[in-house]
Design brief:
This protein is an alpha+beta fold and about 500 residues long. It is about 30% helix and about 20% strand. Helix 4 runs parallel beside helix 5 (about 170-180) and helix 10 packs parallel to helix 12.
Length: about 500
């Protein structure tokens, strides 16, 4: 299928990883292959136009844009063009209602009202009862809000065991009970891989489970932690076994939920022999379907799972101002929302690379850490991993506490917006073009609308203490100073390191 762009038309969508390239217009050359795909984040066969059109497919497709023509091809059923919905918002609402309607369900409110804390940066592969308990104790002692604690990789002796390593965790239930008493929810990292020399691997192999090579032998998959068998998520044998392990953890230990990592389509192959004869993309979708059985869930990779109560974290960002750092947070969160993934989390504050936070690291930048926190402060969720009280001096740590108080101030608005997402599918974090069509904001992706009446413009440049903000028509109030501005122009405001530029519409 070929679609010729209209005058001044631009297009958004496809994949969160492409957020910095969006929107795509008539002068752009762009391509994106959805199968095979290695985006590490959410994606869907969906493109939406600021002129009220959208392209949507039931199956993954390849997109090529050049000379103002969009060419979409699929190995299966072709995508279709839908027209007549006025603007970007109209196109999204039409696509959402027709193809991924909101199911009315919301992840637990704690995901939004409280921070998430992931133990990865502080403990890496040495997850253990003593240090996790101390991490949570320090949260309380350093006046940070209690929230959801996510115990990361290698709390278990090997992959597929999904039982606590009793050397590292001599009393896991006692630990979880204590954390509950302190006011935390507890989640565990989990993945679809099974160590090949384990009892669990042999059990699943002999029961006809696990992904197979075309010759019928179990396929051994290379991933970031080595080589493992991988669950066939279309196979009832694998699903029943996996859910039984999760049930054991929730029922016997009181675990609240799971961080469902991996599940990426790139870990599967088109020629895999599977029970349901499914594609790699479908394996990714089915992995997310499992999480619907656990309200406390988190995902990093999803395919066609929009409109559901799934917590969606951006892939790990670097501790940097450019590249895959702070500069990607807003564009990727905007892309996430326009694809229907409303319950987004902009990665761990400061980034997810543990080497940047080791004692003596020359890469660590306290200014960047604070600006990272500010950028995430008014997004639906905020997650910490590197302990700010450890990596920051007193001055910068005080800035973090101030930003958390700012988030509390806007929390009623955030909660109202995510509850609306459960009803309408509309994201809380919105493109400027989504809210203010036809005012020249098509390519503004370094600031965002929180709902319809708040513009958030974080500082994304090292050393900057001012920020240019593109204002729509009307009157706008600077949240920090109270100054009123006429819209329809770009203004410059002061933006010291401890602040977050916010403009509120004056009705």
């Amino acid at each position: 299928m070929k679609v010729t762009m209209l005058e001044n038309e631009v297009w958004y969508g496809l994949a969160v990883s492409e957020g910095t390239k969006m929107p795509v217009g008539k002068d752009d050359n762009f391509s994106f292959a959805m199968q095979p795909v290695n985006t590490n984040n959410q994606y869907s066969p969906l493109l939406l136009s600021n002129k009220g059109r959208y392209i949507r497919g039931e199956y993954a497709f390849y997109t090529k844009i050049s000379d103002a023509v969009i060419e979409v091809t699929s190995k299966l059923r072709q995508a279709e063009l839908y027209e007549g919905y006025t603007d970007l918002r109209g196109a999204f609402r039409a696509a959402e209602e027709a193809h991924f309607p909101a199911d009315g369900k919301l992840p637990p409110e704690e995901f939004f009202s409280k921070p998430q804390y992931n133990t990865w940066i502080e403990l890496i592969y040495n997850q253990n009862q003593k240090d996790i308990t101390e991490y949570c104790r320090h949260i309380v002692e350093n006046d940070m809000p209690k929230g959801v604690i996510m115990i990361d990789d290698l709390w278990t002796p090997y992959y597929g065991s999904w039982e606590f390593d009793r050397v590292k965790f001599p009393d896991p239930k006692g630990m979880i009970d204590l954390l509950h008493e302190w006011g935390f929810r507890v989640m565990l990292w989990i993945c679809p891989f099974v160590s090949p020399d384990s009892f669990e691997f042999r059990y699943l192999r002999d029961k006809g489970g696990l992904v197979r090579n075309p010759d019928g032998k179990v396929r051994i998959v290379g991933w970031w932690n080595g080589f493992s068998g991988v669950l066939d998520l279309s196979n009832p044998v694998d699903i029943e076994w996996f859910r039984s392990r999760c049930g054991h953890l929730t029922e016997d230990y009181g675990v609240d939920g799971f961080k469902f990592d991996a599940g990426d389509a790139c870990f599967y192959r088109p020629d895999d022999k599977t029970a349901g004869n499914v594609t790699p993309n479908e394996q990714c979708r089915l992995w997310a379907d499992i999480g619907l059985g656990y309200p406390y869930n988190e995902y990093r990779a999803c395919y066609r799972n929009a409109g559901r109560p799934l917590v969606q974290r951006l892939q790990d960002k670097s501790h940097s101002w450019t590249g895959h750092g702070i500069n990607e947070l807003i564009p990727n969160m905007l892309a996430q929302g326009i694809l229907g993934y409303s319950y987004g989390c902009p990665d761990m504050v400061g980034g997810g690379s543990f080497t940047d936070f080791l004692p003596g690291s020359t890469k660590f930048d306290p200014e960047l850490f604070v600006r990272y926190c500010a950028t995430a402060a008014l997004m639906p969720m905020i997650q910490f991993s590197a302990a700010p009280w450890r990596v920051l001096d007193d001055e910068h740590y005080a800035m973090i506490l101030g930003l958390m108080k700012l988030r509390e101030e806007f929390l009623p608005t955030i909660l109202e917006l995510v509850k609306n997402s459960a009803k309408t599918g509309e994201p809380a974090v919105r493109y400027m073009e989504y809210v203010f069509p036809g005012q020249g904001f098509e390519k503004v992706i370094d600031q965002f609308c929180l709902g319809d009446d708040i513009i958030v413009a974080p500082v994304l440049t090292k050393g900057a203490v001012t920020r240019d903000i593109a204002l729509p028509d009307g009157k706008w109030k600077d949240h920090r100073t109270g100054k009123i501005y006429d819209g329809g122009k770009t203004i410059t405001v002061d933006a010291p390191v401890d602040s977050l530029p916010i403009m509120e519409r004056v009705r």
